[in-house]
Amino acid sequence: MAVTTLAAPRSTGRRIGRPVLVAAVLLAWVVLWIPVHGMHTLGLSPADLTPLHRWLNDVNDTVGANRNSSPVFLYFFNEIRAAIDSLVTLLQDLIAQPSYGRPVPVLGWLGVVALVAYVSWAFGNWRVALPAAGGFVLLGLQGLWTESMDTLALTLAAVAISLLVGIPLGVWAGLSDRFHRLITPALDFMQTMPTFVYLAPLTLLFLIGPASATIATLIYAMPPAIRLTAHGIRSVHPSAVEATESLGATGRQKLFKVLLPLSKRTIVLGVNQTIMAALSMVTIAALIDAPGLGKSVVKALQTLDVGTAFNAGLAIVVLAIVLDRVTTAAGDRVRRTGPASRLRRPLVALFGILTAACCYMSYTYVWAAEFPDTYRIGGAISRGADTVTVWAQDHLFAVTDAVKNLVTYALLNPLQALLTESPWWLVAAVAVLLAALVGGVRAAVVTVACLALLIGTGLWQDAMTTLAMTIVATLLVMVLGIVFGVWMGRNRHVDRFVRPVLDAGQTMPAFVYLVPFVALFAATRFTAIVAAVVFAAPVAIKIVADGVRGIPATTVEAATAAGSSTWQLITKVQLPMARRSLTLAANQGLIYVLSMVVVGGLVGAGALGYDVVAGFSQSQLYGKGLAAGAAIVLLGIMLDRIARASSPSNTRKGH
Known about the structure:
By secondary structure, the chain is mainly alpha-helical. The chain has helices spanning about 20-35, 50-65, 70-95, 110-125, 125-140, 145-175, 175-190, 195-205, 210-235, 240-245, 250-260, 265-285, 295-300, 305-335, 340-345, 345-365, 380-395, 395-420, 425-440, 440-455, 460-490, 490-505, 510-520, 525-550, 555-560, 565-575, 580-600, 605-615, 620-645, 650-655. Helix 3 crosses helix 9 (about 210-235), helix 21 (about 460-490) packs antiparallel against helix 22 and helix 24 runs antiparallel to helix 27 (about 580-600).
């Protein structure tokens, strides 16, 4: 008797993927927006204040009234401010400002140039020293010697304190797993916060001036020193440590004889990154009355004086390039030892004597102390920039206006309308759903907390405007990141050509990016967006390029042998396998973009950036500016958390 077996039919249903669910949520949002837009938008006019803003104003007034009587200020905050002011003043007296009854600083321009050349040659070679000396001479020729030295003094003060605190903390983090786990979230938070955010609360405690600027700068600049010092110590090969321990070395001997010498190059890289971060922040700190080149850029941008802004911005770039090249040369120098370094010692001594002679002349003679104004070229640079600006506005207006209108009307305006005109509860519900779909439960919980606090700031609509600009700029950054990153990852010749350009772009402080785009697009929201794109694109492009290049060659060869076209190879193999790099690029792009979009409040971007700037300049809006800084932090945390949680490794852990 035959036995027949009936197989159960297979289920033909498919699990709905996350992209489909995300698209469904967005579509439902657009459909619901049509009948409910304009309702419950939590709008607030620029002059209006909420009870929270008034309370913060009262706190500011109370702090000001008790600053010279409260023990907390008398014996803590005021002492810190006095100590930092003294350090900054000392450095300014040395190289920037008239001091000790003299009409000139202690060290004039000739002495500074000679010292820069000597240090550059000692750490590098003549190829580093000559451009460094030439760069500093150019600062004087631009008519910005005093402003440049003020910026250098603030930078050196912030870097000195950052390294004094950061390197020991980095050593501790490198030696202790527990402390490393403890400090990493704090460093992540410090680097996630846009630079504007540091300024407002610090002025509450330390007043407007060099002290607040220096403290804000060192907070922003310290994380690289801590991270890279810890990374260098943790990267020392265990066999070297074990060999030292087997010889009976103490912990102190192991640290100073093995760990620090073997991690010296990484620590010097941390010094480089700290200097560049400090220079970037010092220029932004001009908003709280920090002296130097940043103040010239801010004043020029506020009056749309492109020529003056370009001249000062060029000086910032020159200073950044010189500092970057000298510290990079120092990092390369620590690897080279032996006869070549010993042969340099007589020359080092000789050039040291010549440098001391130049310093003496700059202290003694007026011509060597005050930079001569006979050959000033700053005016010519400003006029040239103005001429180019007028030419660009006359001849490129059709192109620039078309690009601006395309991005504004096709992307920015619809997204901004969707965010600002939707009821707050609808935006919140969509944000939480998207966070849950993309990043999981933890990301959704963080989003709920951030949105609740964002509503509490009273700046919901301004936050949504800033969010719209951030999203549009990040999308454009990722387009550039994928296009150029894939191109660089697939072609080493392109990588060798493009990467130095990207490195140079990352050297420039954020303020500088605003200047050329103000000339091309005037003061608009689009100016802030395009500046943010150019500011954030280099890091995204390099991350994507490294991810594509990191795919095993055997995988690419197998796909090619199977008959895949170039397009199929990119879209079906390389981009999917580089998904983690794409996620990291999006995360870093978001943080860079948010920082720059907020700075764009100086050139017509409005929203939270304008609220922060207005809080510095108008005492009645101080509380609102402080709340705007908190709103920026909340946006940064929310976006950063969602981007981090959406990485493949975290997604797999969550499921």
